[in-house]
Automatic annotation (TrEMBL):
Gene3D superfamilies: Immunoglobulins (2.60.40.10)
GO biological process: cell surface receptor signaling pathway; cellular response to lipopolysaccharide; immune response; negative regulation of T cell proliferation; positive regulation of T cell proliferation; T cell costimulation
Highest taxon of source: Eukaryota
PANTHER family: GALECTIN 17-RELATED, T-LYMPHOCYTE ACTIVATION ANTIGEN
Membrane topology: Single-pass type I membrane protein
Stated name of the protein: Ig-like domain-containing protein
Signal peptide, first to last residue: 1-20
Subcellular location: Cell membrane
Key words, A-Z: Cell membrane, Disulfide bond, Glycoprotein, Immunoglobulin domain, Membrane, Receptor, Signal, Transmembrane, Transmembrane helix
Entry GO terms, CC: external side of plasma membrane
Length: 359
């Protein structure tokens, strides 16, 4: 499992099918820091008394003179005071855990003098979607972890999905494999009975790189339509391996044809360090890569973000990641991870091996 030092979040406003209340969804991976957005309207002139709750339990509270971290959130939560004064009531949640996956609501508390009670006013609702990251090599077998042992269900009807598309479905002995996953996916029945709903994904392909969500359907309530409970989200990072010889030219593959982007802005990085960047005609070559790297503009316009690395050196051996930078949101989206292995040139024989051994 690879945890990136930078965290990529994205926000989307969606409608919860149950409550039909609009809310914000924030996605964060296990171990990262999540920011649950919240903004106070101009009505609040002094530092307000703020509270964040999750399923009615207090997560964090800030009053004029004190702060409180809720049970299970000790040392992991904050609404910085300076930000709060500016009307920014966003919750900073560090070291995100799987169990943090839930609904969060922020409130502002106002003291009502007459009754000496506090009036709470809801500000914002945020759904935090916590996901796990799994990294797999092209061609290998990946296990997307999932566990429902904590739930007591007789006949589970389980499904792994990518958005609305089914990857794998199992109901008892019957199973279904989605298009593009035929013969490659399974949640073994015996494992499922033990409460292990992990998805086994064989012969991993570059195109498998995405979010997989696991849903459990509660059959008892299936009268009209089954009630689905989302249990787990796993992000599969597919890593491609490329090998090259010292002195040769390597092409690190990258393809964003499936994304619709007007003005492509691509970046290739090693960790946080930029190797190459291109925005239209402008490009930048990182230190140690001057004159050796390019993502040709005409290729980029076709959706081919492959990096051409000339005159490969032994020190180039590492993990490279390509990102597309979104113009509107200023966020970078990971497109591809490529592991480059560099081998020495086969040694050139000084002696002609066919020559008879000398005296
Ligand atoms: C709100 O505060 C958080 C940290 O508490 C910060 O990361 C974020 O950028 C702030 N948002 C705005 C709009 O200032
Ligand atoms: C769960 O099942 C997968 C394969 O289906 C297996 O690889 C994994 O080891 C199992 N995990 C546990 C905790 O048994
Ligand atoms: C993508 O670009 C690289 C170099 O820029 C090239 O070698 C490769 O053939 C291109 N791939 C496709 C599918 O066009």
């Amino acid at each position: 499992m690879i945890l990136l030092s930078i965290s990529i979040f994205w926000l989307s406003v969606c409608v919860d099918p149950i409550s039909a209340d609009p809310h914000i969804t924030v996605e964060a991976h296990v171990g990262s820091t999540a920011l649950l957005p919240c903004h106070l309207s101009k009505d609040f002139t002094q530092t307000p008394h703020i509270q964040w709750r999750a399923d009615d339990k207090i997560v964090f509270e800030r009053n004029i003179d004190r702060t409180d971290d809720g049970k299970g959130y000790k040392g992991r939560v904050d609404v910085p005071e300076d930000e709060l004064r500016k009307g920014n009531c966003s919750l900073v949640l560090k070291d995100v855990r799987i169990t943090d996956h839930t609904f969060y609501t922020s409130f502002v508390l106002k003291h009502v003098k007459a009754t000496n009670t506090k009036k709470t006013q809801e500000i914002n609702r945020v759904h935090l979607n916590v996901f796990q990251r799994v990294s797999a090599q092209v061609g290998s077998t990946a296990v997307l972890p999932c566990d429902w042992r904590h739930l007591s269900i007789q006949t589970p009807h389980v499904e792994w999905r990518i958005g609305d598309e089914t990857v794998f479905k199992r109901l008892g002995k019957e199973s279904f494999q989605g298009e593009g996953y035929k013969g490659r996916v399974d949640v073994p029945e015996d494992e499922l009975r033990k409460g292990n709903c992990s998805l086994l994904l064989k012969d991993v392909r570059i195109t498998d790189h995405t979010f997989y969500r696991f849903h459990l359907f509660l059959l008892a309530e299936m009268k009209y339509y089954p009630k689905a409970k989302e249990i787990n989200t796993v992000k599969l990072d597919v890593v491609q391996s490329v090998s090259a010889q010292v002195g040769s030219t390597a092409v690190l593959p990258c393809d964003w044809r499936h994304m619709s982007i007007q003005t492509p802005h691509v970046e290739w990085r090693i960790g946080d360090e930029i190797v190459f960047e291109r925005l239209g005609k402008d490009s930048f070559q990182g230190e140690g890569y001057e004159g050796r790297v390019d993502v040709p503009e005409e290729e980029l316009l076709k959706g081919n973000c492959s990096l051409v690395l000339k005159n490969v050196r032994v020190t180039d051996e590492t993990l490279y990641s390509s990102y597309i930078l979104m113009m509107d949101t200023k966020k970078s989206v990971l497109v591809q991870k490529v592991k480059l292995s560099v081998s020495e040139k086969p040694e050139v024989m000084d002696d002609d091996p066919s020559a008879p051994p000398g005296e």
